[in-house]
Structure formats: structure tokens, C-alpha cells
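Review form for a predicted model. The reviewer records the input and the model, then writes brief findings.
Reviewer: anonymous (R2)
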Amino acid sequence: MSDPPTKKRLVEQNDGSQKPVGGDVEMKDGAEMAEFFEVVDLLLGKARERLEVWDELLEKGSEWFFDILTEIDLSSLPASQASNIVLTLIEAYGSLEKEVIRSHFLPRASVPLFLSLSDKRREFEIAAFPKLKKPLARMAKQVQADPEALKAERTYFPNLVASFLERVDQSARMQGGPNTDDAKAVYILCCRYLEFFIDLLSQMPTRRFLHAYLDDINLLVYCKQSILYKAGSAVPNIENLFHDLVDALDAVMSFPVDNQTAEALGPNEVENRYCARAMAFQRIAYKDYPVKMKAAAMCNISTMDERVQVKHFVQKLSDGELRELCDKLAVVDAGVAEKIELKREILMEALVDKLSRKPDQSDLNKVGLYPDETMMFSSSLIPSELYSGDHPYALPKLNLQFLSLQDYLLRNFKLIQLESAYEVYQDIEDAIRRTTPTPTPSGAFRLQGMHRMALPISSMQIVKVTPPPIGFTMPGMVRAEVHYNLAGLGRYSNVKAEWDGIRQHDILIFVKLMKADPSSTDARKRLGVEYVRGGEVVDVRDDDGNVMSGYDAGVKLVGDVRHARVGLDPVVYQKDAAKDPKIYEKFDLMIRRRPQENNFKAVLDSIRDLMHNPTTVPKWLHDVFLGYGDADSAHYTNLEGSDAGSAPELSDEDDEPVVIESALTKETDFLYKTDVPRKHDITFSEQQATAIKTALHPGLSLVVGPPGTGKTDVAVQIITNLYHKYPQQNTLIITHSNAALNDIFTKVMMKDVDERHLLRLGTGEKDLETAKDFSRWGRVNYMLERRLTLLERVERLCEAIGIDKGFGETCEAAGNFFAHHVETRWVKFVSEVEQGEQVARRVVALFPFEKYFADADTPLWEGAVDFAKAMKAAHRAFDHLKRVFAELDDCRAFELLRSSHDRGNYLLAKQARVIAMTCTHAALKRHDFLKLNFRYDNLIMEEAAQVLEVETFIPMVLQKPLESGKSRLKRVVLIGDHHQLPPVVKNPTFDKYCNMGQSMFTRFIRLGVPFTQLDAQGRMRPQLANVFRWRYANLKDLPHISSHPSYLTANGGFSSVCQCIDVPNGAESQPQPYFYQNLQEAEYVVSVFMLMRLLGYESGKITILTTYNGQKHLIKDVLNFRCRQGSIYGDHPRVSTVDKYQGQQNDYILLSLVRTEKVGHLRDVRRLVVALSRARLGMYVFCKVELFKDVWELRRAFAELLKAPCQLELCTDEVKCVTERAADERGKGLQHQKITSCEQLQSLVKQLESVLVTEEMRKRAAAAAETRATIVAQQTAEEKAHAEQIAKIFSPSECWEGPRNGWYFGTGPHGLGYYLDTEGAEYHQRMA
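Model under review:
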């Protein structure tokens, strides 16, 4: 084994004169260095939480910091400090979109680095990319004239690499000793270096020149020869981290992309490059070593692509010959190799690494799509603990750029696969904890508990395995049948209904249990899980033969026995069959998952399909999509030949609103009211109109919508305008949630869009607030019904013009009727009118269809006082007839197609022009869309900032390329707000380390893609908007905010409409890890809610928000205790976490921030913006003010909040929620009361409650007396006897005004022993 090269050796290998960066730099004083490391710690703390790392530093001044960061000598620092510096460099090179950072760091990975290459490697790079020749020659002369010229650019990375190799050598020497903190720190530092190199090679600006340098010095070879790679480390939990990171570095080094042109290399190009290297090796072997390497020179290239074979060919060479061969192949410079005494093993490994064929990273056909026990219980793949940032992981990251589309898909595939495995692991853990499986003597397991998401499996068998398709080795399809029984859910009817709601494409997880060992540190043994497999539901049937796929209307399963057919993963099945063919007969537990979390298989399958089939990203979008070139290259102003027509003109005056009308027509322009286009005019602000105008042009359009600025209305108007302006184009609407999609779709329905062109796909269609059915089958039924209605009109037209009926039987006959009878009569009419006297009465007399329009809502000849108006009326009538027959022509396909399935497919593929679905449905149905040749031209995505990268990409590729190979997609409009919360990623490591929560929308914003920001909010009072207004440039208020009474008047009883209420005595607690609660804040919030209810505020207009799930549950408990059902407080308010409430609003928000020791995740400004932007009329924030007010990320929001006193101020003169006091007057002229504690508020609430309860009791007693009189008057003799019996049981006070607060205990039609409310309605039964 060869020792890793030292820094000295590496320096000599380059040019023999380099010194460590910072070696000649004047040392900074201790105070400045101490401040430097304090800033480093601050930055890394933010980076661990995925906060904005650099903004604070850039605002305060960063030059001094960057100077030290780029000059410091890492080899002179302790390992832990050096590790922090490397991590800071990782953050810096991952933030190159910031000009200041780019100017400091990118030059160190640019052209001058090529001056540090060996001469032969430099010549090779120049030959491959001749444009480098002149700048390199100019720089070489510059350095020759002044050795200090370009020193930082030439030496920065060589010295970093040298420092890294010294640390690898140091860590290798420490492996035999005790496992100390120093040994762990050095080992982690080595891993940090590898993480840094991987990140640099994963983005083209730094890869372009660094790749050649790292390849030239054979960094991979040195790493693979290290004991850290071969034997691992003694550091617990990360023993093989160095090995895994080196493999990841190897993968990114060999990734198929041209480092200079950034062009992705196809399989043929990769093969050609490999063959060129192999043939060069063979030519040298044949010419210079004809005896020792004859076999290598004469063999077929395909036989030498394995590492073992290459080693066999060169092992006969002497050390000198081996150095000579490496020099001729430009693998290692012979002179340098001899000078620094490189050992044979290093030379052999370097040669083998260059000549062996690299594995195809894109071949995902051999990868299973469902998580299994090996993946989900591997701590190196799926870290289960909360992310601490203590060490790196051998996991892919998402950042600004990707090397190619293949790289983009591979990274996302791996992360989606691991995230789904983590989620399934949590589901299994929860199911086992709740069901408590216990082994029986027979070896089976009995479930002691119950879980709504899990059931025992009665039996399971493989029922169908098809042969492998051509070119594959695994089966084409594997089907299994799972038998289970719902009898155990008898008293849980809702849970049984959920199991019977399983539909096609749902994912089921199957678990083989084993005896658990609660004391084991291995999670798999502790849970008792032997195997885990997954399957996709095909259909479910019962014993009576009823089959349901979930989309069959009217099918209902009977009994308790169910048989589910599921599709298994052929890749996993093939491996299982080789080990244990009966593995699928042994599963014990079946787990279903929530539909909204169950699309991972569809996404992975789509990615795999995209990897292996032609995928066309629009050419105009390609570079921006990968993060290259000009950020505005996809904007319509930079697209050649783009002409989407004109959009609504903007007002000349900035302050004037713009009205975009859906139809500039009057009802009198149409004969029938059903023909009148729906008008839903909205006044748009100038920026909204700009966003609409921009989106009508081809290209990429981004719309940033701050809270309350009308993003949805803008999206709806874009869709409507595209529908009318481009009648041959189809528009696809995508959102993340069903609620948002239904909101958009409902508003589109109100626009002038013909409903026969609207289609809503997915299960969320049933939640649309309309009696109409816009699902695929609902639209088919609509078209069939519409066909009959229109054919009746044809029959009536036949009668009107004196033609025998019969043309109204089919759409084809109606078409012939129009061509041969209607159109010919119209042509004749026009000809006769033009030839004779042009007067109105003649037009009326000659018009052939007058009888048909006898039932018109607007008289046919209304206003036809002259010839021109009469002809206009005639044309109006004929236009109506043309619309009737055009619509019948659309119905013709539904007449010819006989099955509902075919009709539904035709509707989707040919007729629908505005199609709406969630991103989940898009992934689930992508294969079906491709088969149907689904086509669309425009993609409108709302909630784009809440959608994962790949889930934004999949809707762009739901159609096949055109015959020319180009994409049909013309417009992509992404609407969202990157200042609000990002997509949800459950595993904290994937979220914070891998940046998996990045959305494409946010990435485009970071890249500098042009966007239109809506700048006028219409949701909340100005005082509430001011709290987050600083986050958005020039955010104004719409005019109605300053004029509508609800925004002008104050909140009755409260001095301020927005207040931050200090709860200094609150204390956070954790009943279980990370389940944060604060009882004092919970009591305070509930007390304010009680006060608001006593003042008359409606419960439905109040929402209680909090930043933690634990506090949400605690507040609900306090509400249940303080405001029991049936009390004077009525219904409870909605209680939610901030994250769950994004996209929603209410009039009044009570916000609890919970934490008292650390700020927690509210430090993420995006969460803060969401929390502070939900209220319309009033917001009251409860927190420990001292903790939050000075935090840099929160300071501006709290500065606005603390303009009002931080103690709750009440106006005691106002005892109702309605007041005439202005919102900006803090109780002027009224009596104030400051609430200094929760106890004081609770005392006030009790006093007010007692007053109101007494008044309410009087009202109820009067109402009860009236009810009693009515009941007594209607009582029969028997009922009067019962009443006397009740009187003996209940005292008069109890009956009428006692503890029941006015409840009346009655008899008669309401039943003996019931007590009634004041309306006389049955409420509760009591034993007599």
C-alpha cells in the first residue's frame, strides 16, 4: 500500500514553487480573528437551519471577512476550526448568485487554475477546447514577468488539495490509536473536504476548470489508496463515510458532460471517448511493448473494460515502464512520478482508473421503486435523528445548477426514493406501536391493538408473472393477490369505509414481522421487522364478485372479506425469487398510506421513464432550467420570433387601476340569454395587468404574489385570456393542493369559458362548490345531454323552414342538414338582399329562419329600424345557428364512440382546452397521458413555491415531443411566493443538508430570472400589512383598504388592532422530544378568545395559530376545559399550526410563538411572513418579547409590532365588538385598562361572563316559560300525568332556571326524561 502523498509532494508535482495560501499574508490580530470565527459560527448556525446565510453579513460589511476566508491557511488550524472554514466555503460556493460572493470566490476556480496543470494535460485541454489557448498564453507571460501575478487564482485550490491530503495522512495515522475527539475531528474534516470537492464538481462554473486539475493530480487514486477508504474509521455511526464520499466523488468526476461546453454526453459519445482511450492504450502497447503487452494490443476493446483485466495487462511491466506508460497516456507525468517516488500501487490504480469503463449511472431499470428493509434501516442512507450538521452525508444535494437533465433527474430520484423510505419507516413504526403484534406458538402474529392504517393479512399469493420484455431481464409484470378481512373493524364504520375507499394506483406496504427485541440498538430488531415490500393497487373485489378500482360509480363492496390485486416491483421480485421464492406468502401486516402522501412511486416511475426515453425540455427553457447562461434568456423579450399578440394595455397613469373585461358585449347582442358570455369583470392593479400581459407571450413568466395580492385572480385571468386569444391551444392548470385547484377552477367557471372545454381531473373534483360534475365522466354525460338538447333544436329548425324532420336524429345528419339546407338558404338570402332595394322591411321579409327565433329572449328584429341594423340582426341570428351546429360537431365523437372509457379519453385528448389537476395526479397519470397523446401548449402553475423541484418538472413533460423532436410547450407561468414557506420535507437531513425543500420557483428567483411582483394587497388593514411589508419591495394597499368600513373601524374592546403581548413568565416544556408547549401562553390565548366571544366576536372569524404541534394540542385542551361545549362561548375556534395554515386567512388571528429559551424555527423569515399575514382585521401575538425582538431576522417585524405597548390594552367602555372608533385611534377618549397578567384577564373574563350569563338566563327563562306554556297547552291527559311525575323528580328551579341555565325538562312529543333547549328541540336524555 502506498502512503498518501504529502503536501510537499503535491506542490512539487504542480510547479515546485507554490506556498500555502496565507503563508505570505500578514497575520491578523487576535481580536479580528476572534471576530472572524464568531461570524463563521453565526453563518454556520444559519446554514444548519437553512436560513438566509449571507444577508446579515453583506448588510453589515463583508470585505474583511471574505479577505480572511480566502487567505487563511487551513493546515495551521485545529481540525474543528478548519472543518468550519471548509463548511463556510461550501456555503460560499453554493451562493454564487450573489455578486459579492461570486467576485471573491469564482476567480479562484477559473482559467488561471490551468497554469497548475501538468504540461501534457494542459495541452490536452487546449486541444479539446482551442479557445483556451490565447488566454492561457497571455497569463503564462504575465506570470513569467511577475511570479506573484495571479498567485491567488493559481494556488488557492492546489493548496486546499494539499492540505486535504495532509489531513488524510494525519487521520490514517490516528486510526490505530484511541478514538479521541481529535481523531474524530480530523476524520470529519477529511470528509468535509470531500463534500466540498463534490459540490464544486456538481456545478458547471466551478467544475469547468477544477475537474481537470483534480483529475490531473489523480486525487481519486490517492483517496482510494488511503486506509480511510479501505478499512474505514473507528468513529461511531460514520465508519464508512469517507468511503461513501469517495465513491460519490468518483461518480461526479466521471459524470458524462463536456466540462467546457456544458453539453450532456449521450451514450454514443461516452462510448466513443472510452474507445479512444482504449485504442490509444492499445497503440502504445503494440508499438512500445510488443512482447509484454501483446495480449492487450490484440484484444477486443470490450474485453478490457473491467478493472481486473486492465491490471492483468499491465502487471508485467517494470516500475520504470509503468511510469513511462502513464506518462505517454498523460495519466501521471513520468518526471514528477520518479521525483516524488510514486509507488507502483499508485501508478497501477491511476492507470486502471483511466482505462476501465465507468458504470452507467443513468440505468435505473435495475433499481426498485419501493423502499425495502435494507434501505429504510440504513443510517448512512436515511439519517433518522434530527439534523445537527456535525458531519456531512454521502447524499446528493439540490442547488442552483445541474450538470445536465440526467443529473437533475438522478439527484431528484435518489432524494425522492430516500424521503419515501423515511416516511414509510415512520408509518411502519407507528403501525407496530399501535397494533402491538405478539407472536403466537404457530409462528404467526396476533395484533393486540388497532390502527386505522394497518390490517393483518389473511394470505397473499403471486398470481401472475409475465416474461421479460425485449432487452430486459426482469419480468414485465408481477401481480399478487392479497386477502384480508374487515370484520375486526365492525364498530369502526368510518375506518372500514376508508379501507373500502382504496382505489387504483394507491400504494400498500407489506411487512413480514419477527420477534422484537426492545433492548436492541438496531431499529429493525427493536421494531421486529424482517421484510418490507410495496405494491400498487389494481383493483379490490369481494366474495360476491363485485370489483372496484375506485373510479367505478355505483359499485359497492359487500361483506367483510376483500381480495386486492396489486402490482409488485419486477426488479425487487426478481431478486426475491432468487433468494426465497415463497417470501410473498409470509407477510403479516398490510399498511395503507394517506393519498396526499402516497405519490412517491408515480414520481419515481416518471423519473425512470424520463431517463430512458426521449425527454424534450423546450429549447427556450433548457439553459435556464439547468441554471446556465443568461437568466432572462427564457423571457419573451429574448425569444426569437415570439409574437403572442397584444395583451390588455396598461393605463398611462400609474395610480389608475386597469379593468380587463372578459367580454365587451351587451346582453342585447344575443338572442338567447344562454348565449350571453359570462362577465366577471375585475379591477386589476397595474402590476397585475403587467403580469397578465407578460404571461400571454411565449416563454417563462414568474409572478411573485405577496399575501393578499390576488395571485389566484391573476392566474384565472391569464387562463381566460389564453382561452380566447389562442382558440387552438390547450392550457394545463397545476397546483399543489386540491383546495387551491378548486379555488382557481371555480373562478374559471365564472369566466367566459365554455364549460364543454373545462375538465377537472383527480379525486378533489367532488369538493368543487357546484352541482355540475366536471370530472371526465361528468363531462361525458354533459356532452351526451347537450347533444340531445341541440338535436331538438335542429328538429325545430327543420320545422321552421319547412323540411321534413329526421335531421335531428344524429350529429352527422345535423351536419349534412346545415351544409345542404341552412347554409344554402343563408347564401341565397344574402345574395337576394344585396341585389334588390336595401331597406329593412325587405331583409325581414326575405330572412328564411324567422319562425325558429320566435322563442328568442330578445326579439329578432328589435331595433332594426334601417337596413344596416336589420342585417346586423340577421347576422346575429345566423351566428347563433352556426354556434349550435359547431357545438353539435363537437358532440359527434361522443355519438360514434360507444364506451364511456373511450369517450372519456377522447374528451381529455381532443376536446378539453382547460385541464386542471394537482401535481400528484400529473405524476400518477403521466403514462396514461402519453398513451392518449395528450397535448397542451400552456402550463399555469399556482402555489409554485410550495412544489418540489421534480414535481414542478413532471407537468412540463406530460406529452410526447412533436415529430420534429421539439416540445409543443409554448408558455410556462409559475405563480407563487418564495418569501413564504417552501415544500414540506419530513426528514430534516434531506431538507436542510440536501436542500430537498427547494422549489423550482425559488431556484429561478435565485438565478435572477425576471419576475413580476404584485405590489398591492387587499386582504388586511394597513397596520397589519406593515408588520411584514418590509419583506416586499413597494407593497401598497388596494383602494378599498382605505375606504371600506370594516378596515376603518377599530376592534371593539381592544385599544389596538395589532399588538404583541408579552408573556414574560411563560416557560417552554417538552412532554416528548420537540413537542414544544407553553401553558402560560395557551391560557392567555384562550382567555383572549373568551373575551372576544363575550364581546360578541363570531367564533368562526377567529383562528388561533401557533408555531408548534405540541402547543396546538395544549390550546385545544385548554379550550375544552375553559369553554365546554354548550357553554356561553359556543363553538371553538379553529386551532392550527402556522405551516398548515399557509394560503388561508381569517378576520382575527391569535398567535402563540411558544418558545422561551431559543427562537426555534420561527427564525426562518418565510415562516414569520406566513404567521404575520393571515389576519384581516386584528392580530394579537403572544410571546416572550425579550427573546424575539433583537433577533436579526425578526427585528424589523418586531419593531413594527412593538410600536404598540407590549401589554394587552382594553377599552373597558366598549362592551361590544362593534364600535365607531377609527382603527388608528388607540382608544382615544375612552377608559383604558392595561392587562399585566393572564390571571388579571381571567378575572375580568369571569366578571363579564357573570353579567352576560345572568342576562342570558333571564332571556332563556322567558323563552322556556313560553315553550312550557306551548307544550302544556298541547299536552294530553297521559302527558300531563307524566309531567306531574317529572315535577316530583326535578325541583322547579332545576326545571326552569337552575343549574341547567334555563334548560326545560319536558315530556309529551319530546319523550319522558328529555330536557329541551329554549326552542323546544330535543337536546339530551336524562334518567327519570
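Findings: The longest strand covers residues 529-541.
Further findings: Residues 1-27, 642-665, 1291-1328 have pLDDT under 50 and may be disordered.
Recommendation: see findings above.
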